[in-house]
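> forwarded from #structure-qc
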């Protein structure tokens, strides 16, 4: 469009020059041409500036949205990582607390067991009570074994006591089970281990010991009924372990 108008002015100048234009008219025409060209240049410059600004704003908005999306993705990633870390830490603390509670409960149960084991040491010191208990253990072992003849094994320190109880075994068996007792004799060749020297040795388990009681076996030793105080305590402990642990549950 500018070129067409410019050509028009040149044609006009040429025609007017052909009609003997004076210098004033020529300069006026040229000034009009210059003003027009400057106006066109200003308009084009303004259009270019506006277009450039629009493109800059679009590019800036795209970059800004891209950075925002990047920040959001980074924030989401950090938030998820933080959430996972918190869950892991919570699970770790929960597990540590659970382990401490279980350990405290187990310590308390073991303390009860140690107290019970310690009481076994003093049981054999009460001769009358221990004698009644030994007679009951012998009769029970003979009945469970169901073999004749039977052998009775005991600790060396209990041999005099068991020998003194042998005359009472038959009557006690008959009274308890309503029939004759099987033949039984004391096996002094295979005594049970001696008692522990103290409570520390008893709880350490470093040495085999026996706190009292008897083992009744068949004559060839192939069948035996263990009726020692330690085994009876172990059976009672294992049978009542859930209830013992339940005592310390909160």
């Amino acid at each position: 469009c500018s070129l067409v108008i410019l050509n028009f002015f040149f044609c006009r100048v040429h025609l007017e020059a052909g009609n003997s234009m004076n210098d004033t008219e020529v300069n006026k025409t040229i000034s009009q041409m210059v003003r027009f060209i400057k106006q066109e240049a200003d308009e084009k410059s303004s259009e270019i500036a506006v277009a450039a600004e629009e493109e800059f704003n679009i590019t800036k908005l795209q970059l800004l949205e891209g950075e925002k999306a990047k920040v959001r993705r980074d924030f989401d990633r950090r938030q998820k990582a933080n959430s996972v870390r918190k869950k892991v830490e919570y699970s770790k603390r929960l597990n540590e607390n659970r382990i401490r509670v279980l350990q405290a409960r187990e310590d308390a149960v073991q303390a009860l067991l140690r107290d019970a084991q310690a009481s076994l040491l003093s049981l054999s010191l009460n001769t009358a009570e221990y004698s009644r208990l030994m007679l009951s253990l012998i009769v029970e072992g003979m009945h469970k074994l169901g073999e004749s003849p039977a052998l009775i094994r005991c600790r060396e320190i209990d041999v005099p006591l068991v020998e003194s109880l042998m005359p009472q075994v038959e009557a006690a068996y008959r009274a308890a089970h309503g029939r004759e007792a099987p033949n039984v004799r004391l096996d002094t060749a295979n005594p049970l281990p001696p008692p522990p020297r103290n409570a520390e040795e008893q709880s350490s388990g470093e040495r085999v010991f026996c706190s009292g009681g008897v083992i009744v076996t068949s004559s060839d030793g192939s069948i035996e009924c263990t009726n020692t105080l330690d085994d009876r305590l172990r059976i009672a402990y294992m049978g009542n372990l859930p209830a013992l642990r339940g005592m310390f549950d909160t």
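QC bot note: The mean pLDDT is 84. Strands lie at 150-153, 184-186, 213-218, 224-228.
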